[in-house]
Amino acid sequence: MAETHTSSRHRLQSTDLATEIEFLMARARALGTSKANEQLAALNLKARSYAVLALACSDSRPSQRELAEFLSLDASQIVALVDGLESRGLVVREPDTSDRRSNVIVGTPEGVALYERAVSVVSAAEGKSLGSLSETERDQLRELLARVAFEG
Amino acid sequence: MAETHTSSRHRLQSTDLATEIEFLMARARALGTSKANEQLAALNLKARSYAVLALACSDSRPSQRELAEFLSLDASQIVALVDGLESRGLVVREPDTSDRRSNVIVGTPEGVALYERAVSVVSAAEGKSLGSLSETERDQLRELLARVAFEG
DNA sequence: TATTGTTATACTCTATAACTATA
DNA sequence: TATAGTTATAGAGTATAACAATA
Fold first, then answer.
1. Which of B31, B136, B146, B71 is nearest to A130 (CA)?
2. Fewer CB within 10 Å: C terminus or N terminus of chain A?
3. Hey, what domains does chain A have and what are their CATH numbers?
4. To probe the interface with A, which of B70, B112, B128 has the most A CB atoms within 10 Å?
5. What is the pLDDT of residue A98?
6. H helices of A57-107, where?
């Protein structure tokens, strides 16, 4: 909690590790996620459940399998995540008419309402995390990350 | 393992979530870490232990507390990580002469040798992960991430 | 009093395998 | 034979609080 005397712009920044993109992503994400989770806690959400809710509230009608794949999670983890949201009345599992093995996860009106609030909370947190970047730099970062995240 | 038929450039990429930098970092990192871990397994390392080894083998002589902070880990987690490397003779805990509460973690010659091999393995994995980016784009990404990761 | 490293512990997250119902 | 969802479970990762030694 208390940051000790971290103000001393980290000595270790001059190491080779600190130039590895992998490491930088891990650290940037740890910072960002903890900020986002702090804010989301007020809505009883976490980064994970927020992501599921966001996709459920989009018009894409994802299956659980698609959620797992898109969110880089194991399919078995989606079950608990969806259970949690469903028990709060935020999403429902609708049978997929074209494949009866499959559920489609969609947001309820309550879910959509909570999602709207969560979006603004998350984007505020993102704004804080990315405070040192200009708008064009953020777009640049977004574009580069997207190519890495969805590379074939 | 088998990627089912993911070849279908994800439907969900058009959702709002997919434009959030936080989400993109999480996904990019998940991809990269799993690739890196695959390669590091042959050296009996993981991303975490590799990072500790890298810092131990730099000339910065980090304390355990500094490792924890720099790697966004809890101090108590560093103990096990260092224990593991120390028991393999890759690093040693040296008492800090200026503060006897403190240990300084340094790589042994064996540790340095393994680290050299690990670096090349990791950078090959990174190269694969970032395959779609040019050299200048990688530098751009590195610079942007560093600012987010070390923002004051 | 405060801090470093440590331990113990509980909690969460993640991965695996097995099952069911569909295809 | 293969896939979607589910369950159970074990293993890894993470957070909390407490203690000893030192500052």
1. B146
2. N
3. 22-149 (1.10.10.10)
4. B70
5. 92
6. 64-70, 75-87
